[in-house]
Amino acid sequence: MKTPAINLETEQQLFFHNYARLPLHIAYGKGSFFYTTEGDRYLDMIAGIGVNAIGYGDQRLEHAITEQAAKYIHVSNLFMQKPQFDLAAKLLEISGMSKVFFCNSGTEAIEAAIKLARRFAARNGDTSKTQVLSLTNCFHGRTYGALSLTAKPKYVGGFEPLVPETGMIDFNDIDDLERKVSSRTAAVFVEFVQGEGGIHKVSEAFIARLKGLAAEHDFLIVADEIQAGCGRTGNFFSYMPFDLQPDLVCAAKPLGGGLPLGAVIGCDKVAEVFTPGSHGTTFGGNPVACAAGLAMIEAIHEDKLMENATETGAMMRATFEKMAEKHAQILEIRQYGLMIGITVNREAKYYVDEALKRNVLVNATSQNVIRLLPPLSISKEEAQLCLDTLDAIFSEEKQA
Ligand SMILES: Cc1ncc(COP(=O)(O)O)c(C=O)c1O
Asked: Is the distance from the beta carbon of residue 257 to the nearest atom of ligand 1 less than 6 Å?
């Protein structure tokens, strides 16, 4: 069969239409930029949807991948694998927690956490302690458990019925939190900074009350660090500045350095919940992905990329604030390290399209939020290029 030329029409013929792909064919990436097969250069302010934390083409990452791939690519969890142990040890050192379970994606990490929480809740034979809650406006993934904890009708619609005994607490609403949790609650899932929801941070007061209620009703607090974790907010995990140690932490996205990898990290008290055979996955903790993940974390520390996220993020916020004084289109700026949301007074897709015409890739979420998740390695000059581009778009829009 003749290989069809790659174009948007072919994509329409070959695939289910669940992605609205950009009409760009990527040839390669370098640092904060990718290059198309047409030879055009784009500044990537979304970094593979928050995955490419150290940018494209990092030699340390490539070396870790090729070195491990030359030894073995897959053997399964029937065996001891050093790359898994090394990455698990690093995650435990960073978090101060006790146990790690590796899977392949964010949604799988959430599934594992739901299962672990329910099994923990049932440890004394209490079959009524099954309720799993999340916060409105959240996103936890696409498989049924994670989807049942996900807020947006756009993601959930048509897939019902969802997993029983799941529900949502109004974001940052302490009264609703007090109303919803009880001795029947097994776990509450929290994105400390909501990503898909438009970059919203949970309040300290809400977390303080959640912590108190978790102790009172004996339920687990699960931090979903899939988007906000691995240094993006300036801390390795976004829960870290809060006065709270979650019982479970879910990580993914950059965790495998661009290869599929997810993890659940657990505290002491849940260490014995999973027993042989009670949960598992064929590919979870793939050694090449683990080697890549370790190289990525080491690069984050070596290059002081969390410091860069804090500094460059603050510089971007200051510039956006100045921009907001002259452009009425900017309604609100929310910035936590290099996790940035700009609420605008129209569909954010307009700015995505305009920026793309100017070779800058930004992203839209929650209809009217421009979302920026650049590589943590982005330089101030590159960040300025994005700011100048958006500034020009806002200015020209007013003149049009
Ligand atoms: C906060 C959060 N949780 C879970 C997920 C699901 O991760 P994955 O797409 O790897 O399944 C995402 C993905 O965007 C996310 O942002």
From this structure: no
